[in-house]
Design goal:
Layout (H helix, E strand, L loop, with lengths): L6 E7 L6 H14 L4 E4 L2 E3 L3 E3 L5 E3 H10 L10 E5 L4 E6 L2 E7 H25 L2 E5 L17 H7 L3 E6 L5 H10 L3 H4 L2 E9 L7 H11 L3 E6 L12 H6 L11 E6 L4 E2 L5 H5 L3 E6 L2 H5 L3 E4 L1 E2 L2 H10 L2 H10 L4 E4 L1 H5 L3 E4 L6 E4 L6 E12 L2 E4 L5 E3 L2 E9 L6 E2 L8 E3 L25 E3 L1 E2 L1 E3 L2 E4 L8 H15 L11 H19 L2 H10 L13
Parallel strand pairs: 1-9, 1-10, 2-9, 3-6, 10-11, 11-12, 13-15, 13-16, 16-18, 18-30, 19-21
Antiparallel strand pairs: 4-5, 6-7, 7-8, 14-17, 19-20, 21-24, 22-23, 22-25, 25-28, 26-27, 29-30
């Protein structure tokens, strides 16, 4: 174990999806391997991929992944502000893990000043408890139209005295212009904290970069601290749907021993990482699709989470996807809905909260009804599969409560005391929301609401509010075996695929990339000593 070394660093990027999240995770892994107590931090995250911490707080999934890289439990302080877009012009603001407001761009600007104190307190808390905090910026630090109220990039760096490393994605092209231009657009005071650059996703002969690296240093007075090579298999736990484009299209596979999974990519798709575990399985090919013809021949169709269930359901219908999904269900071909996707499978959705649309017909493929409540339900439930008793852990994030009026439950999550409890429906026969606000009720043939069961299944149509269930290896294998039988495939799930082991291998790879391709000595000096004094100012245009 190394001696205690303290400090902090901010990883900024020339664009969204430039590599900030993976570099931050790689730094956390590299430091943790050396016995350093390290934590990640992202002041403000705009993402529809989120998770729930052990104490019931909602944070960005990327920060939970970075915490795993550091070998620690995620907590609300690691992502104090989370923005969840619900439309083109408005987002839900989640502060320290709890939703506090729905805002548009202009009203959020006014709210930022009040949030900044919370952000700085969260960072100070982490710095008091950890040796090193690796901070991740948001978007680009050169968004000069937003600089006056920035709380995630140079505003944070200035307030906390953080040295800044800017990462650029060479695979996009124009990386030298992007790095130089990012620096040149900043004020002298902000530039004084920008201490170096990292080039990400390089493919080819490193020697070809030499003249460009030398020229960038002579123009800016800042070194390139390393060039990270292109690496496959880094798509787990991504936070931005932009990253789905990087996976590219997948050619339709052939053969009876292959399972083809089509995931509906609606405009406000959320928690699409639920299907990462399927993509890890040998012989399973996962594609994100938007057209009926891409759905028709798939062996399994997944309706993932959505931040705007009613609006995304309308989009699905406008594309004609509803008809092909209904036809599949009638033919006994597998369909899985998760959270928002589960809500879409209902007979009716009553939403006066998220969309304000009131009562809207669902796809009608499950005997369920959905009502949206103002309180967001956050939790990390666990249970066992009904019938087979396989253990399952998960997390849930939703406003919509599903009332099940038939079919079969998927999971049993007994209340404390070990047995599901039952209560009669409210007057008039309408099922009541369970008292604990978390477990979904099941109205069976006897007209009772069962608290302690979750999800619903009718034939080859499954639905659950629980995210992450497919990361449970035994359950995933059993589920895929059922899908294969229903689809008429000879596919047999591999017996040794472990989602958690795959995640750890990926995090180890990120740590390896940092150790092997970055100037770790220079990084240590920045972490411990801050930005070097006397860095030159680079005016726009040179």
């Amino acid at each position: 174990m190394t001696a205690r070394r303290t400090g902090a660093l901010l990883v900024a990027g020339t664009t969204s999806d430039a590599g900030k999240s993976v570099l931050t995770a790689g730094l956390c892994r590299w430091l943790a391997r050396q016995g350093v107590k390290v934590a990640p931090f992202k002041a403000q995250n705009m993402s529809l991929n989120s998770v729930v911490t052990a104490d019931g707080a909602e944070i960005g999934r990327a920060q939970a992944m970075q915490a795993a890289a550091a070998g620690i439990e995620p907590e609300a302080a690691m992502n104090p502000v989370l923005l969840k877009p619900g439309g083109e012009r408005h987002s839900q603001v989640v502060l320290l893990g709890r939703p506090i407001a729905e805002v548009d761009a202009m009203s959020y600007r006014d709210l930022k000043a009040r949030l900044f104190d919370v952000v700085l307190d969260a960072l100070a808390s982490l710095r008091s408890r950890f040796d090193v905090v690796v901070c991740e910026g948001a978007g680009s630090p050169a968004e000069i139209n937003l600089r006056d109220r920035d709380i995630a990039n140079m505003g944070l760096a200035r307030a906390a005295g953080l040295p800044v490393v800017v990462v650029g994605d060479i695979d996009r092209g124009g990386v030298f212009a992007a790095l130089y231009g990012t620096l040149a657009l900043l004020s002298p005071e902000d530039q004084a904290l920008v201490s170096g650059f990292v080039i990400n996703k390089f493919r080819g002969d490193h020697a070809l970069l030499g003249p460009g690296l030398d020229r960038l240093r002579s123009l800016t007075g800042r070194p390139v601290l390393g060039v990270l090579p292109w690496a496959e298999g880094l798509w787990l736990d991504v936070e931005d749907s932009l990253a789905l484009d990087a996976r590219g299209s997948v050619a339709p596979p052939a053969g009876r021993g292959v399972l083809r999974v089509a995931v509906i990519r609606y405009p406000r798709i959320s928690n699409f990482t639920d299907v990462d575990a399927l993509a890890l399985e040998p012989g399973v090919v996962v594609s994100f699709v938007t057209r009926p013809e891409e759905v028709a021949d798939a062996d399994l169709v997944v309706l993932p989470g959505s931040r705007a269930t009613v609006a995304d359901l309308a989009w699905l219908r406008s594309r004609g996807l509803d008809a092909v999904i209904a036809r599949r269900a009638a033919e006994g071909r597998p369909v899985l809905g998760i959270c928002g996707g589960y809500q879409m499978l209902a007979r009716e959705i009553v939403d006066e909260v998220e969309s304000g649309a009131g009562a809207v017909p669902g796809l009608g493929l499950l005997p369920t009804r959905v009502r949206f409540g103002r309180d967001k339900i956050l939790g990390r439930p666990s249970g066992v599969t009904v019938g087979s008793g396989l253990p399952v852990t998960a997390y849930e994030i939703h406003h919509g409560v599903v009332f099940v009026e038939g079919g079969e439950p998927l999971f049993e999550a007994p209340a404390e005391g070990g047995e599901p409890s039952f209560e009669a429906p409210a007057a008039g026969g309408e099922p009541r929301t369970p008292r604990d606000g978390r477990a979904e009720p099941l109205a069976g043939d006897a007209g009772l609401v069962a608290r302690g069961y979750e999800g619903c299944r009718v034939g080859a149509v499954w639905g659950t509010t629980w995210h992450g269930v497919l990361e449970n290896d035994a359950y995933r294998r059993a589920f895929l075996a059922e899908v294969a039988r229903a689809a008429g495939r000879d596919f047999t799930p591999a017996a040794d695929t472990s989602f958690e082991a795959a995640r750890q291998r990926r995090l180890d790879l990120l740590g390896d990339l940092v150790a092997e391709h970055l100037d770790t000595g220079a990084l240590w000096r920045l972490i411990e000593g801050g930005a070097p004094a006397g860095l030159p100012f680079v005016p726009p245009g040179g």
